[in-house]
Amino acid sequence: MCLIELVNITKVYRGKNVETKVFEGISFEIHVGDYIGLYGRSGSGKSTLLHILGLLDRPSSGTVKFKGTDIGQIKAHQFSQIRNEHIGFVFQDFRLIDELTIFENVEIPLILSKQKCSKAVREQKVMAVLSKLDIQDKRNSYPQELSGGQKQRVAIARALVNEPSLILADEPTGNLDEQAARNTMQILSELNKEGTTIIIVTHDPEVKKYTDKVIDMREIVAQM
Ligand SMILES: Nc1ncnc2c1ncn2[C@@H]1O[C@H](COP(=O)(O)OP(=O)(O)OP(=O)(O)O)[C@@H](O)[C@H]1O
């Protein structure tokens, strides 16, 4: 089943003096259950593509369909609603909020979700993902009190709490030592086995051992 369909996508950044065409006329599909590594050299457009797949940005032209819905045809608030409910993000620098506890950080997507749930349900959902990621004992700690690997587990818990169809991970192992990186990749593999579609942007060749498919930016640009 097709989760995301990109048809004839072009992305051009128009600055004051410079116009950068990142890619032109690319088409491909992401299927439910895919575990994809997105590779390419620095500046090749990986983040740009990830932002389009994650509904953080729109292409300059072409069609993006998410679960069959043409996202070019929907209003801005629906666009962010689909993103909130269906997509979880994991970043290299974790992006946890320092002023909030681990519990509160993981609770954020539930508070932002349009499908409001009670405090008791939020508590139950947050504790379930914290336990799944084996970080429940840190619920009252603050991000700066955790190791890099623990922070990334919290970030994965936050990405998961809304039970998204898709997880997009931008260099998730980039700030981790070898052990924590392996642990993070094992967690993502488990989630994929449980049915979550995952796309990982990476420079790390080790990640290829885990993913099932590769999107190489060189091939995408070669389509142009
Ligand atoms: N907001 C922007 N405005 C103008 N140009 C941009 C913008 N964002 C990215 N670019 C340009 O688009 C191209 C692709 O950038 P992008 O960040 O997608 O690459 P990347 O493959 O993710 O790189 P890296 O691995 O270094 O993060 C680059 O030439 C970059 O300068």
TrEMBL record:
Nucleotide-binding in keyword set: yes
Keywords: ATP-binding, Nucleotide-binding, Transport
Name of the molecule in the record: ABC transport system ATP-binding protein
Database matches in InterPro entries: AAA+_ATPase, ABC_transporter-like_ATP-bd, ABC_transporter-like_CS, MacB-like_ATP-bd, P-loop_NTPase
Pfam family, one: ABC_tran
Ranges where the ABC transporter domain occurs: 4-224
Source organism (scientific name): Paenibacillus hunanensis
CDD domains: ABC_MJ0796_LolCDE_FtsE (cd03255)
SMART domains: AAA
